[in-house]
Amino acid sequence: MYKTVEATQRTFDYVLVADKADDDDDDIRVRKQKAFIQVLEKKNIEVTTIENDDKLFFGLRAPREIFEDYTYLLKVSDSCNCCGDEKSNITQATRIRIVDLILRNTFINTGENLHKLMEKGVFDTKFCLHEETEQKNLTEKWARWSALFKHQPFSDVKCYFGEKVALYYLWLSWYTKMLIPAAVLGIVLFLYGLAFFKTSPLIKEVCESNITMCPRCDKRCTVWKLSDTCTYAKVSHLFDNEGTVFFAMFMAIWATLFLELWKRTRAKYVSKWKVYDWCEEEEELILEIMSNPDCQANEFRHSYFRSILVLILVTLMLMLIIGLAHALVVFRVVAAPLLSEGKSEFIKDHANTVALILGAILHYVTIQIMTRVNRWVSLKLCQIEKTNSFAATEKSFTIKMFTFQFFTLFSSLFYVAFFMGRINGHPGNYVRIAGWRLEECHPSGCLTDLFIQMAIIMILKQTLNNIFEFTVPWLKNCFSRSNIKCSRCNGNEDGLDKPYNNYELQDWLRNYHLAPTNAFSLFNEFLEMVVQFSFTTIFVAAFPLAPLLALINNIFEIRLDAIKMVHLERRVVPRKTNDIGVWTKVLEFIGVLAVIANGLVIGVSSDFIPRLVYRYYYGPCANGITNTQSVACMEGYINDTLSMAYMSHEAVEKDFGFEQMKLDNKINITECSYRDYRTNEDYSLTAQFWLVLAVRFAFVILFEHVVVVCKFIAAWFVPDNPMKVKNDRLYDKLSRLKKELRSESLPHVSSL
Questions:
Q1: In the predicted model, is pLDDT for residue 310 greater than 60?
Q2: Is residue 266 part of a domain?
Q3: Is the torsion defined by CA of 412, 418, 421, 424 positive or negative?
């Protein structure tokens, strides 16, 4: 069927895999296989075919002339690659990248390329080969657990996996280092809250209170004592104290410094790797010419119809995601009263908290499902757009996927942070969804609810994702190895058919059984880390320990990803770049959003402003009365934030759905307290409410303007490029220009 060539031990650029033909029904598939191989051979690609069991392996090796043409056409500052052979300046990574594009741009007479042929089963898969020597080198320096705290060999990673992968690990390493001061300060803030755990008058007021609170839900709930939530108040104080404001400001400025210092780090390495002036557009044009010398430029196009269609579909998708966030709210609203009827006394006493935890777990499950849906929708939208290059498609896909993921992750958190407890109404006029009352905030504030949501989602996402991300390819690799070993024992030594070259086939089988990779494999890693960066910055005021969790995760994430890429996955196609691309813009957007969100969290969600107003306007110290203990100025604060509802039996039945309220099912109650600033007569808002609201908005505006100014100053103060990089590039350009001028041997030059 095919001319089988005995392979020698040499480097192959790529391997194609296809199923053997069993009957006449496969004639069309076989003809297309032959047609594709013949087109490759016309492009001077050397094809070596090896049969094994029910598979055909096609080893591809491109001629040296193609890469010489590439070097000639490049003619930019990165044309000399220090990792390659001094004569050719061509690395195996460069060979793989060029051959990969040739494969993607090779068409048979039916107009089908390799992607279409693989969809129709003509070819099973394609992959580039790992190099055993380089694998051992990377394992020794990088891809093993004993190197957990060692410096990463970024240049070696670049030479093997390409600049794109190397810049990912460089960015992740820098991000992890920058998390250290943020994590330390978060721990200090946590310890500060812990230091006043027992002495805070706010906690004491809750724990020793005899206040009777209104039912949290209808029919199934009853009145309760404020002192029952003593533990909740203590936890709230750990994350909602005076230090929260300064930590939020620090993290907003930290995000700016992180990006500015990252740009400097990136500039140093891309200058060292000679890709500082690299142009993606020119690179793609050169690779197109390598694939087809007669190719035509894929012109830029813009369609208003397609843009409007994509915008409408994106809006519909976002409405669906926000609708899921509303469904989570409904779940918590329904779950709380149902749990309050349970047999367990603990669950009955903490029904709202348990409902919140279950909602957070359900939110995580929703995230896992929607991640796959979001990916599929993003790819379809990119197909509708019909971008003119892979780089443009990747950028468009990144923006759409991140937008969908962001709304999936944060829609529910934004509700908890800014709406929960503020739109639920009051006795006599409660807001309901399908007959169920909306959730209320604890008298100590809603920040703890936000903390619980974030902690559960972040811990589950990081822990479970890493476990599945590593164990699935590891188990598959173990299973594949056992299959290869079994094939050696089934009457066919080494699982090979003589006279084929044993070494080559064994190496191809080893690579074939590794977990597959694709053009977006690295995207998944970036998305995971950028989402984590969002958690670390946007709502950090509610979760100061987020940087610590991120730091611990990233220390292990780096080695997990390294081991996975070197040993458990097929080699990714090395790609050239000099930046992390559109992710920089995404990180800048997150940095700006972090300022807005943290300002709103402190001003709106936190009790920082109401406490401030009470201390200086309504509290014991408001009239200039001093006390040896300044904390005494906050005495009576909790009671000040509560309003009283005086209710007749008719009103109780109308509002809560039962004939009478009873405390411990014994004493009838006709009055109860609830969290709000309202009068006792007609439930109208008090003057204190409007004062607190005005101060809240004033604080948000002041906070955001101050932090934004600090961000701009930090961005201006830290140059994007180190002076050494600028000077090195200056002297490099000068020396190359002089060398080029002398090499021309022009008459007027010799006369100078």
A1: yes
A2: yes
A3: negative
